[in-house]
Every structure is written in structure tokens, then in C-alpha cells.
Write a structure and sequence with these properties.
Number of strands: 10
Order of helices and strands: EEEEEEEEEE
Structural class: mainly beta
């Protein structure tokens, strides 16, 4: 096994955790605006090949390039009070290059027209 490289805010010099393997990684991101019409709009994205579709109000599938897989996700609501979760596709019945995003109202019902941001980290 190799080493995991960790960077801290104070230095650009990596430290390592013995017995682990270094992995190259990259990230992609998207900012989705949702006016409630059923067609969420991509306001900004790190790549033109990213798409989003609404499955039902409060449930979305974001699709990245097929080379994007082995994902870790971070999501945030941008204009509302509620909850959001993002699950990599291979853990939610989708393709490995997709992410299921669920937005919830404070009462845990599927959310309405919430804007959200999503970042994914993946191996290269």
C-alpha cells in the first residue's frame, strides 16, 4: 500500500498516513436554479456536459461525463430553509456518473422549487 497525502491550510507540503495509497482526484460542480416549472435550469457549471433533470418535485438526477465515477458529493440549498441530500448514482440505482439529489421541506416532505449547488469529487 502507498500513502494518503493530506494538505493543511498552513502549508503546501503534504503529510502522509502510512499504509495507504495516494489517489489522483478531480472535482466538478453545478449550480441549479429551479422556478417550479419542472425544468430546473443550470445557472453555472464546471463543464458543459453536465445535465440535470427533475424526476418529481424535490427529486433530481444530475448527470456528469461518463468518465466521472467513484463519486463523493457535497450539496447545499441556496435559497430556502429545508434539507438536501446527494447520493452517488451507484448507491442510488443510477449510473456511476450520476447523482440523485433530494430536497426536503422542514417537515421532511419532498421540496418544491429549491435552488441548489452540488460538488462532486472523483478519481482520475
Amino acid at each position: 500500500m502507498g500513502d494518503i497525502y493530506i494538505f493543511n491550510n498552513c502549508s503546501n507540503t503534504p503529510s502522509t498516513i502510512p499504509g495507504t495509497q495516494k489517489q489522483n482526484s478531480a472535482f466538478a460542480w453545478i449550480y441549479v436554479m429551479n422556478d417550479g416549472s419542472g425544468t430546473p435550469r443550470i445557472a453555472r457549471a464546471s463543464d458543459d456536459n453536465i445535465s440535470v433533470k427533475q424526476v418529481q418535485p424535490g427529486e433530481y438526477v444530475v448527470t456528469f461525463d461518463t468518465k466521472v465515477k467513484d463519486l463523493a458529493c457535497i450539496a447545499t440549498l441556496n435559497n430556502s430553509v429545508g434539507f438536501i441530500t446527494a447520493v452517488p448514482g451507484d448507491n442510488s440505482g443510477l449510473q456511476a456518473s450520476e447523482v440523485r439529489v433530494i430536497t426536503l421541506n422542514p417537515d421532511n416532505s419532498l421540496g418544491g422549487a429549491f435552488d441548489f449547488s452540488l460538488a462532486v469529487f472523483f478519481r482520475t
